[in-house]
């Protein structure tokens, strides 16, 4: 009899974005490894619910028919409220509904795999571990609330204290911890007192089929920004950069979403930036195909210490597509881009410097080809899901075996 796994994740197919793509790949590849896998998630709502009325986002027929193993709970509150109180209510509603589902769920599982943030979803994972008597794997995709503090969202000391306490408890009670950034490991060890051997790095990545997509650069002298436009992104820098590129008649396409998109769009309209274009959201396949056609991909994170530890999904997507990166990032992201010679980084977050880097890539095809090839080679070695899922399989097998030994004892 195959081992049973329950994945708990707020984000899942058909949602766009790194979080949903990560959960989808783990679900599909664990099934290919012979496990019986179920998913507890929400109805698709990122970046908005209305978007998923378009059937093009439901582009995986196999997943569309797996209604018995993929359970979606309905959420009434608005995730994207500017009010931190309303956001907390939203996260708490998700948690409560997940707890109710687990409480009345009659199925048995060997392992629960819960992915955060939001950190409150982790409560459902802890509850499942106790009530279902199974092993708990905690997948940490972001340091929450550190990231929110870094962008000035969290100012309430009492709330911060409670969330940090919850974060520490989850790490201590998890049987194994998985992170998508190597830089998170030391932070968790230092702040939660967790042994390093309990933590494993499994990055986001690409599938083999995505690496086989056409990567010939067909759009000349054109750049793309693909991904979130939220509090973590340096949107002010992107505005300045867009204006400078527009002044030089260089086109930039924005495939973006998030809290700051409207602000960015209004800026472009007010400044009459005719060379800046906002594109509608795409499916992952469409997005990768489009990114592959540009000569430069942009990335810009707010210059805060917490973001030195992250590796945005858009960086991996650009590298997958062989699109040279021009960015303003530091820490782990910078180390990969510069260390692997996959792009050019402005340490000073200087838009003039970034424009010069873009022009340099435009004007030197040999440089562009080297950056593109370096990026794709790095992804092939380090960021292929079919390879990295083996690490998760080893963790699952060791945890199931440990659980059996405890039961025997």
Can you characterise this structure?
Keywords: Membrane, Transmembrane, Transmembrane helix. It holds the Pfam family Glyco_transf_4. Belongs to the glycosyltransferase group 1 family. Glycosyltransferase 4 subfamily. This is Glycosyltransferase family 4 protein. The structure is a single chain. By secondary structure, this protein is an alpha/beta fold. It folds into two domains: 227 residues, Rossmann fold (3-Layer(aba) Sandwich), CATH 3.40.50; 175 residues, 3-Layer(aba) Sandwich (Rossmann fold), CATH 3.40.50. Helices cover 47% and strands 16% of the residues. The chain is built from 16 helices and 13 strands. The strands form two sheets. It has a seven-stranded parallel β-sheet with strand order 3-2-1-4-5-6-7, with helices on both faces. It has a six-stranded parallel β-sheet with strand order 10-9-8-11-12-13, sandwiched between helices. The longest helix is centred in the last third of the chain and has 24 residues. It starts with a strand and ends with a helix. The mean pLDDT is 91.
Shape: globular
Distance from first to last alpha carbon: 23 Å
Q: Could you name the CATH homologous superfamily of the largest domain?
A: Glycogen Phosphorylase B
- The average pLDDT value, as a whole number, equals 91
Q: What is the percentage of strand-forming residues?
A: 15-25%
CATH topology grouping of the largest domain: Rossmann fold
Protein name: Glycosyltransferase family 4 protein
Keywords: Membrane, Transmembrane, Transmembrane helix
Organism: Bacillus salipaludis
Pfam families: Glyco_transf_4 (PF13439), Glycos_transf_1 (PF00534)
């Amino acid at each position: 009899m195959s081992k049973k796994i329950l994945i708990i994740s707020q984000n899942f197919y058909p949602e766009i974005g790194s979080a949903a793509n990560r959960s989808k790949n783990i679900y599909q590849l664990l099934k290919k490894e012979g496990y019986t896998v179920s998913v507890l998630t929400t109805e698709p709502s990122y970046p908005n619910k209305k978007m998923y009325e378009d059937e093009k986002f439901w582009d995986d027929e196999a997943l569309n028919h797996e209604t018995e193993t993929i359970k979606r709970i309905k959420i009434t509150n608005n995730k994207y409220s500017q009010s931190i109180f309303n956001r907390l209510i939203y996260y708490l509603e998700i948690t409560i509904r997940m707890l109710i589902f687990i409480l009345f769920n009659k199925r048995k599982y060997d392992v629960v795999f819960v992915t955060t943030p939001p950190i409150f979803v982790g409560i459902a994972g802890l509850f499942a571990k106790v009530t279902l008597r199974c092993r708990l794997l905690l997948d940490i995709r972001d340091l929450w609330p550190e990231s929110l503090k870094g962008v000035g969202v969290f100012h309430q000391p009492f709330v911060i204290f409670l969330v940090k306490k919850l974060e520490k408890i989850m790490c201590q009670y998890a049987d194994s911890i998985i992170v998508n950034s190597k830089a998170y490991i030391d932070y968790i060890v230092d702040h939660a007192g967790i042994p390093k051997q309990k933590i494993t790095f499994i990055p986001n990545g690409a599938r083999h089929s995505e690496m086989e997509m056409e990567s010939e650069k067909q759009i000349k002298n054109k750049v793309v920004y693909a991904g979130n436009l939220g509090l973590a992104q340096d949107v002010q820098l992107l505005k300045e950069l867009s204006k400078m590129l527009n002044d030089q008649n260089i086109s930039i396409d924005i495939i973006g979403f998030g809290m700051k998109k409207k602000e960015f769009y209004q800026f472009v309209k007010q400044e009459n930036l005719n060379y800046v274009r906002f594109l509608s959201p795409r499916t992952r396949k469409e997005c990768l195909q489009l990114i592959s056609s540009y000569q430069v991909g942009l990335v810009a994170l707010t210059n805060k210490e917490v973001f030195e530890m992250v590796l945005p999904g858009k960086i991996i997507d650009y590298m997958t597509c062989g699109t040279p990166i021009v960015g303003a990032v530091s820490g782990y992201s910078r180390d990969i881009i510069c260390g692997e010679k996959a792009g050019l980084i402005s340490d000073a977050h200087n838009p003039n410097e970034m424009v010069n880097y873009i022009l340099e890539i435009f004007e030197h095809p040999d440089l562009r080809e080297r950056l593109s090839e370096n990026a794709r080679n790095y992804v092939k070695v380090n960021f292929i899901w079919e390879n990295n899922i083996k690490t998760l399989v080893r963790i699952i097998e060791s945890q199931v075996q440990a659980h059996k030994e405890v039961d025997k004892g």
